[in-house]
Amino acid sequence: MTLDIVGMVGVKPNEGDPSVSIIGGGIDLDYLERFSRVHEESGFDAALVGYSSGSADSFAVAQAAAGATSDLRFLVAHRPGFVSPTLAARRAASVDIFTGGRIGVHFITGGNDAEQRRDGDHLLHDDRYHRTSEYMNVFRKALDGDVFDFKGEYYDIENASSDVGSAQAEGLPIYFGGMSELAFQIGAQQADIYMFWGEPRALIQNHIQRLDDLASTHNRELGYSISFRPIIESTEKLAWERAHELLNNIQKGKKSKKGSVRPGSTGSKRLLDIAAKNEIHDERLWFALAAATGAAGNTSALVGTAEQVADSIMKYYELGIETVLIRGWDPYQDAIDYGKELIPLLKHQAPAKYNSSRVSAYSS
Protein backbone atom coordinates (compact mmCIF):
# COMPACT_ATOMS: atom_id res chain seq x y z
CA MET A 1 0.00 0.00 0.00
CA THR A 2 1.63 3.21 -1.21
CA LEU A 3 0.47 6.77 -0.67
CA ASP A 4 -0.62 8.61 -3.81
CA ILE A 5 0.10 12.34 -3.44
CA VAL A 6 -2.11 14.64 -5.49
CA GLY A 7 -1.87 18.40 -5.96
CA MET A 8 -4.02 20.82 -7.93
CA VAL A 9 -3.05 22.90 -10.94
CA GLY A 10 -4.62 26.19 -11.97
CA VAL A 11 -4.73 27.91 -15.32
CA LYS A 12 -3.93 31.44 -14.15
CA PRO A 13 -2.11 32.98 -11.18
CA ASN A 14 -4.39 33.67 -8.23
CA GLU A 15 -5.05 37.41 -8.09
CA GLY A 16 -7.67 37.60 -5.38
CA ASP A 17 -8.96 35.97 -2.24
CA PRO A 18 -6.74 32.97 -1.45
CA SER A 19 -9.83 30.98 -0.48
CA VAL A 20 -11.11 31.14 -4.05
CA SER A 21 -10.69 28.05 -6.19
CA ILE A 22 -7.56 28.14 -8.35
CA ILE A 23 -9.26 26.82 -11.47
CA GLY A 24 -10.92 29.93 -12.89
CA GLY A 25 -9.84 33.23 -14.37
CA GLY A 26 -9.18 32.50 -18.02
CA ILE A 27 -6.12 30.69 -19.34
CA ASP A 28 -2.44 31.57 -19.01
CA LEU A 29 -0.81 28.68 -20.88
CA ASP A 30 2.71 29.53 -19.73
CA TYR A 31 1.57 29.53 -16.09
CA LEU A 32 -0.31 26.25 -16.48
CA GLU A 33 2.75 24.57 -17.97
CA ARG A 34 5.08 25.95 -15.27
CA PHE A 35 2.64 25.03 -12.50
CA SER A 36 2.36 21.48 -13.85
CA ARG A 37 6.12 21.09 -14.07
CA VAL A 38 6.45 22.36 -10.50
CA HIS A 39 4.16 19.54 -9.37
CA GLU A 40 6.18 16.94 -11.23
CA GLU A 41 9.51 18.30 -9.97
CA SER A 42 8.15 18.44 -6.40
CA GLY A 43 7.31 14.75 -6.40
CA PHE A 44 3.53 14.86 -6.72
CA ASP A 45 2.11 11.72 -8.31
CA ALA A 46 -0.88 13.51 -9.83
CA ALA A 47 -2.66 16.84 -10.00
CA LEU A 48 -6.35 17.65 -9.89
CA VAL A 49 -7.78 19.73 -12.71
CA GLY A 50 -10.84 21.43 -11.27
CA TYR A 51 -14.20 22.42 -12.69
CA SER A 52 -16.60 25.31 -12.27
CA SER A 53 -19.41 26.79 -14.33
CA GLY A 54 -17.04 29.43 -15.72
CA SER A 55 -13.73 27.59 -15.96
CA ALA A 56 -11.83 26.23 -18.93
CA ASP A 57 -12.67 22.72 -20.16
CA SER A 58 -10.98 20.34 -17.72
CA PHE A 59 -10.08 17.65 -20.28
CA ALA A 60 -8.42 20.24 -22.54
CA VAL A 61 -6.53 21.68 -19.56
CA ALA A 62 -5.31 18.21 -18.56
CA GLN A 63 -4.11 17.47 -22.08
CA ALA A 64 -2.20 20.75 -22.25
CA ALA A 65 -0.67 20.19 -18.81
CA ALA A 66 0.33 16.64 -19.73
CA GLY A 67 2.20 18.00 -22.73
CA ALA A 68 4.43 19.99 -20.37
CA THR A 69 5.23 16.99 -18.14
CA SER A 70 6.44 13.42 -18.50
CA ASP A 71 5.00 11.31 -15.71
CA LEU A 72 2.55 13.44 -13.73
CA ARG A 73 -0.97 12.02 -13.81
CA PHE A 74 -4.08 14.18 -13.95
CA LEU A 75 -7.32 13.78 -12.06
CA VAL A 76 -9.88 15.49 -14.29
CA ALA A 77 -12.94 16.90 -12.56
CA HIS A 78 -16.09 16.34 -14.61
CA ARG A 79 -19.64 17.39 -13.84
CA PRO A 80 -22.25 14.88 -15.13
CA GLY A 81 -25.33 16.04 -16.96
CA PHE A 82 -24.05 18.55 -19.50
CA VAL A 83 -22.77 16.19 -22.18
CA SER A 84 -23.80 12.64 -22.98
CA PRO A 85 -21.98 10.04 -20.85
CA THR A 86 -21.04 8.14 -24.02
CA LEU A 87 -19.37 11.28 -25.41
CA ALA A 88 -17.67 11.93 -22.07
CA ALA A 89 -16.28 8.39 -22.07
CA ARG A 90 -14.84 8.80 -25.57
CA ARG A 91 -13.38 12.17 -24.65
CA ALA A 92 -11.76 10.78 -21.49
CA ALA A 93 -10.40 7.73 -23.31
CA SER A 94 -9.00 9.89 -26.12
CA VAL A 95 -7.19 12.19 -23.70
CA ASP A 96 -5.96 9.14 -21.76
CA ILE A 97 -4.42 7.75 -24.97
CA PHE A 98 -2.93 11.11 -25.97
CA THR A 99 -1.30 11.45 -22.53
CA GLY A 100 0.02 7.90 -22.35
CA GLY A 101 -2.46 6.63 -19.76
CA ARG A 102 -2.18 9.49 -17.27
CA ILE A 103 -5.85 10.36 -16.77
CA GLY A 104 -8.41 9.64 -14.04
CA VAL A 105 -11.89 11.17 -13.86
CA HIS A 106 -13.39 12.75 -10.74
CA PHE A 107 -17.18 12.93 -11.02
CA ILE A 108 -18.56 15.96 -9.20
CA THR A 109 -22.33 15.87 -8.94
CA GLY A 110 -22.56 19.45 -7.65
CA GLY A 111 -23.88 20.57 -4.30
CA ASN A 112 -24.63 24.22 -5.03
CA ASP A 113 -27.94 24.88 -6.79
CA ALA A 114 -26.94 28.38 -7.94
CA GLU A 115 -23.69 27.07 -9.43
CA GLN A 116 -25.59 24.35 -11.30
CA ARG A 117 -28.10 26.82 -12.75
CA ARG A 118 -25.28 28.81 -14.35
CA ASP A 119 -24.89 25.89 -16.73
CA GLY A 120 -28.63 25.45 -17.13
CA ASP A 121 -29.12 22.60 -14.65
CA HIS A 122 -32.20 23.00 -12.47
CA LEU A 123 -32.38 19.54 -10.94
CA LEU A 124 -32.39 19.38 -7.15
CA HIS A 125 -29.77 17.59 -5.03
CA ASP A 126 -31.19 14.05 -4.96
CA ASP A 127 -32.21 14.14 -8.62
CA ARG A 128 -28.69 15.19 -9.57
CA TYR A 129 -27.23 12.24 -7.68
CA HIS A 130 -29.64 9.78 -9.29
CA ARG A 131 -28.65 11.19 -12.68
CA THR A 132 -24.97 10.85 -11.76
CA SER A 133 -25.50 7.20 -10.89
CA GLU A 134 -26.93 6.50 -14.34
CA TYR A 135 -24.22 8.64 -15.94
CA MET A 136 -21.34 6.74 -14.34
CA ASN A 137 -23.01 3.44 -15.20
CA VAL A 138 -23.19 4.39 -18.88
CA PHE A 139 -19.67 5.89 -18.77
CA ARG A 140 -18.23 2.58 -17.56
CA LYS A 141 -20.17 0.56 -20.15
CA ALA A 142 -18.92 2.82 -22.94
CA LEU A 143 -15.31 2.31 -21.85
CA ASP A 144 -15.76 -1.48 -21.92
CA GLY A 145 -15.94 -1.36 -25.71
CA ASP A 146 -18.93 -3.66 -26.06
CA VAL A 147 -22.15 -2.69 -27.83
CA PHE A 148 -24.83 -1.95 -25.24
CA ASP A 149 -28.24 -0.48 -24.59
CA PHE A 150 -29.23 1.47 -21.49
CA LYS A 151 -32.62 2.75 -20.44
CA GLY A 152 -33.01 4.75 -17.27
CA GLU A 153 -34.86 7.79 -15.97
CA TYR A 154 -32.31 10.24 -17.42
CA TYR A 155 -30.59 8.35 -20.26
CA ASP A 156 -32.03 6.20 -23.03
CA ILE A 157 -29.21 4.83 -25.16
CA GLU A 158 -29.41 2.31 -27.99
CA ASN A 159 -26.71 0.26 -29.67
CA ALA A 160 -23.87 2.35 -28.23
CA SER A 161 -20.18 1.52 -28.44
CA SER A 162 -16.81 3.25 -28.42
CA ASP A 163 -13.86 2.70 -30.73
CA VAL A 164 -11.46 4.08 -28.11
CA GLY A 165 -10.72 2.77 -24.64
CA SER A 166 -8.41 3.65 -21.78
CA ALA A 167 -4.68 3.26 -22.35
CA GLN A 168 -4.41 1.89 -18.80
CA ALA A 169 -4.41 -1.88 -18.33
CA GLU A 170 -6.74 -1.68 -15.33
CA GLY A 171 -9.01 0.87 -17.00
CA LEU A 172 -9.66 4.54 -16.38
CA PRO A 173 -9.87 5.15 -12.59
CA ILE A 174 -13.10 6.76 -11.39
CA TYR A 175 -13.06 9.10 -8.39
CA PHE A 176 -16.20 10.29 -6.66
CA GLY A 177 -17.23 12.25 -3.58
CA GLY A 178 -20.20 13.47 -1.60
CA MET A 179 -21.24 13.38 2.04
CA SER A 180 -24.96 12.62 1.81
CA GLU A 181 -26.26 9.10 2.39
CA LEU A 182 -27.36 8.98 -1.24
CA ALA A 183 -23.83 9.87 -2.35
CA PHE A 184 -22.44 7.06 -0.22
CA GLN A 185 -24.83 4.55 -1.76
CA ILE A 186 -23.95 5.61 -5.31
CA GLY A 187 -20.22 5.79 -4.66
CA ALA A 188 -20.21 2.31 -3.15
CA GLN A 189 -21.59 0.98 -6.45
CA GLN A 190 -19.69 3.11 -8.97
CA ALA A 191 -16.46 4.62 -7.61
CA ASP A 192 -12.95 3.23 -7.55
CA ILE A 193 -11.71 5.88 -5.12
CA TYR A 194 -13.99 7.78 -2.74
CA MET A 195 -12.84 11.29 -1.88
CA PHE A 196 -13.27 13.09 1.46
CA TRP A 197 -12.51 16.61 2.57
CA GLY A 198 -10.38 16.80 5.69
CA GLU A 199 -12.45 15.84 8.73
CA PRO A 200 -11.32 14.56 12.16
CA ARG A 201 -9.97 11.01 12.11
CA ALA A 202 -12.82 9.48 14.08
CA LEU A 203 -15.35 10.77 11.54
CA ILE A 204 -13.26 9.59 8.58
CA GLN A 205 -12.96 6.16 10.19
CA ASN A 206 -16.76 6.02 10.48
CA HIS A 207 -17.17 7.05 6.83
CA ILE A 208 -14.77 4.35 5.67
CA GLN A 209 -16.55 1.69 7.68
CA ARG A 210 -19.93 2.78 6.30
CA LEU A 211 -18.67 2.76 2.71
CA ASP A 212 -16.87 -0.56 3.15
CA ASP A 213 -20.13 -2.08 4.36
CA LEU A 214 -22.09 -0.65 1.43
CA ALA A 215 -19.47 -1.69 -1.12
CA SER A 216 -19.36 -5.24 0.22
CA THR A 217 -23.05 -5.67 -0.64
CA HIS A 218 -22.03 -5.13 -4.28
CA ASN A 219 -18.93 -7.36 -4.00
CA ARG A 220 -16.71 -4.32 -4.40
CA GLU A 221 -13.79 -2.70 -2.57
CA LEU A 222 -13.08 1.03 -2.55
CA GLY A 223 -9.93 3.08 -2.23
CA TYR A 224 -10.06 6.32 -0.24
CA SER A 225 -8.70 9.84 -0.64
CA ILE A 226 -8.60 12.84 1.69
CA SER A 227 -7.92 16.52 0.99
CA PHE A 228 -6.14 19.14 3.12
CA ARG A 229 -4.61 22.57 2.67
CA PRO A 230 -1.48 22.33 4.82
CA ILE A 231 0.22 25.36 6.36
CA ILE A 232 3.84 24.46 7.12
CA GLU A 233 6.78 26.43 8.47
CA SER A 234 10.14 25.67 10.06
CA THR A 235 8.63 25.84 13.57
CA GLU A 236 5.13 25.22 14.88
CA LYS A 237 4.98 28.79 16.22
CA LEU A 238 5.75 30.25 12.80
CA ALA A 239 3.16 27.97 11.16
CA TRP A 240 0.42 29.20 13.49
CA GLU A 241 1.50 32.81 12.95
CA ARG A 242 1.19 32.33 9.22
CA ALA A 243 -2.16 30.59 9.64
CA HIS A 244 -3.62 33.47 11.68
CA GLU A 245 -2.20 36.05 9.28
CA LEU A 246 -3.99 34.25 6.45
CA LEU A 247 -7.19 34.15 8.49
CA ASN A 248 -6.98 37.89 9.21
CA ASN A 249 -6.53 38.65 5.52
CA ILE A 250 -9.55 36.57 4.58
CA GLN A 251 -11.69 38.15 7.29
CA LYS A 252 -10.67 41.65 6.13
CA GLY A 253 -11.59 40.71 2.58
CA LYS A 254 -15.02 39.51 3.72
CA LYS A 255 -15.74 42.83 5.45
CA SER A 256 -15.13 44.68 2.19
CA LYS A 257 -17.68 42.53 0.37
CA LYS A 258 -21.44 42.60 0.66
CA GLY A 259 -23.39 39.55 1.78
CA SER A 260 -22.13 36.32 3.25
CA VAL A 261 -20.98 33.00 1.86
CA ARG A 262 -23.64 30.32 2.02
CA PRO A 263 -22.59 26.70 2.12
CA GLY A 264 -24.02 24.80 -0.81
CA SER A 265 -23.05 21.17 -0.39
CA THR A 266 -23.56 18.68 2.41
CA GLY A 267 -19.77 18.49 2.71
CA SER A 268 -19.50 22.26 3.26
CA LYS A 269 -22.20 22.18 5.91
CA ARG A 270 -20.39 19.36 7.66
CA LEU A 271 -17.14 21.35 7.78
CA LEU A 272 -18.98 24.34 9.25
CA ASP A 273 -20.61 22.14 11.89
CA ILE A 274 -17.22 20.73 12.81
CA ALA A 275 -15.76 24.24 13.00
CA ALA A 276 -18.60 25.34 15.29
CA LYS A 277 -17.78 22.57 17.75
CA ASN A 278 -14.06 23.25 17.91
CA GLU A 279 -11.53 25.33 16.02
CA ILE A 280 -8.85 22.62 16.30
CA HIS A 281 -9.49 18.87 16.11
CA ASP A 282 -7.08 16.01 16.69
CA GLU A 283 -3.60 17.55 17.01
CA ARG A 284 -3.59 20.27 14.37
CA LEU A 285 -6.60 20.04 12.05
CA TRP A 286 -7.70 23.67 11.94
CA PHE A 287 -11.20 24.75 10.85
CA ALA A 288 -11.08 28.52 11.35
CA LEU A 289 -10.42 29.03 7.64
CA ALA A 290 -13.35 26.77 6.76
CA ALA A 291 -15.58 28.91 8.97
CA ALA A 292 -14.24 32.16 7.50
CA THR A 293 -14.76 31.07 3.90
CA GLY A 294 -18.11 29.34 4.31
CA ALA A 295 -16.29 26.05 3.71
CA ALA A 296 -16.49 26.69 -0.02
CA GLY A 297 -14.45 23.67 -1.04
CA ASN A 298 -11.49 21.97 0.55
CA THR A 299 -10.70 24.41 3.39
CA SER A 300 -9.54 22.32 6.36
CA ALA A 301 -5.89 23.01 7.19
CA LEU A 302 -3.17 21.00 8.89
CA VAL A 303 -0.88 23.47 10.67
CA GLY A 304 2.65 22.83 11.92
CA THR A 305 6.12 21.83 10.80
CA ALA A 306 6.50 19.49 7.84
CA GLU A 307 7.25 16.67 10.29
CA GLN A 308 4.13 17.38 12.34
CA VAL A 309 1.86 17.62 9.29
CA ALA A 310 3.34 14.43 7.81
CA ASP A 311 2.69 12.63 11.09
CA SER A 312 -0.95 13.75 11.03
CA ILE A 313 -1.39 12.58 7.43
CA MET A 314 0.16 9.22 8.29
CA LYS A 315 -2.51 8.67 10.93
CA TYR A 316 -5.14 8.88 8.17
CA TYR A 317 -3.03 6.53 6.08
CA GLU A 318 -3.20 3.99 8.88
CA LEU A 319 -7.00 4.21 8.69
CA GLY A 320 -6.89 3.11 5.04
CA ILE A 321 -6.46 6.40 3.17
CA GLU A 322 -4.32 5.68 0.10
CA THR A 323 -4.52 9.08 -1.61
CA VAL A 324 -3.93 12.51 -0.10
CA LEU A 325 -4.69 15.71 -1.98
CA ILE A 326 -2.68 18.68 -0.72
CA ARG A 327 -2.92 22.18 -2.11
CA GLY A 328 -1.83 25.42 -0.54
CA TRP A 329 -3.25 28.83 0.15
CA ASP A 330 -0.38 30.23 -1.93
CA PRO A 331 -0.81 27.49 -4.55
CA TYR A 332 2.34 27.83 -6.67
CA GLN A 333 4.86 28.51 -3.91
CA ASP A 334 3.28 26.00 -1.54
CA ALA A 335 3.59 23.28 -4.19
CA ILE A 336 7.33 24.02 -4.29
CA ASP A 337 7.61 24.03 -0.49
CA TYR A 338 5.67 20.78 -0.15
CA GLY A 339 8.13 19.19 -2.57
CA LYS A 340 11.10 20.33 -0.51
CA GLU A 341 9.79 19.55 2.96
CA LEU A 342 6.54 17.55 3.15
CA ILE A 343 6.39 15.12 0.22
CA PRO A 344 9.77 13.44 0.89
CA LEU A 345 8.61 12.69 4.45
CA LEU A 346 5.31 11.23 3.24
CA LYS A 347 6.96 9.03 0.61
CA HIS A 348 9.48 7.77 3.13
CA GLN A 349 7.02 7.12 5.95
CA ALA A 350 4.11 5.53 4.06
CA PRO A 351 5.67 2.12 3.22
CA ALA A 352 7.27 1.87 6.69
CA LYS A 353 3.97 2.70 8.42
CA TYR A 354 2.13 0.14 6.30
CA ASN A 355 4.67 -2.62 6.94
CA SER A 356 4.63 -1.84 10.67
CA SER A 357 0.83 -2.02 10.84
CA ARG A 358 0.88 -5.36 8.97
CA VAL A 359 3.40 -6.85 11.40
CA SER A 360 1.31 -5.67 14.32
CA ALA A 361 -1.87 -7.12 12.84
CA TYR A 362 -0.35 -10.51 12.07
CA SER A 363 1.35 -10.84 15.46
CA SER A 364 -1.77 -10.05 17.48
Features:
TIM Barrel, globular, disordered C terminus, single chain, 16% strand, alpha/beta, 47% helix
Description of the molecule:
With 364 residues, the chain is α/β, with parallel strands linked by helices. It has one domain (4-231, 303-363): Luciferase-like domain (TIM Barrel, Alpha-Beta Barrel). 47% of the residues lie in helices and 16% in strands. The model is unreliable at 358-364 (pLDDT under 50).
N-to-C CA distance: 20 Å
The level of helicity is 40-55%
Number of domains: 1
Shape annotation: globular
Largest sheet: 8 strands, parallel, barrel
What portion of residues belong to β-strands?
15-25%
CATH architecture: Alpha-Beta Barrel
Uncertain ranges: 358-364
Q: Do you know the CATH topology?
A: TIM Barrel
Number of strands: 14
* Rg over CA atoms: 20 Å
Q: Kindly state the mean pLDDT as a whole number?
A: 89
CATH superfamily: Luciferase-like domain
Q: What series of H and E elements makes up the topology?
A: EHEHEHEHHEEEHEHEEHHEEHEHEH
Mind telling me the CATH class? Alpha Beta
What class do helices, strands and sheet pairing give? alpha/beta
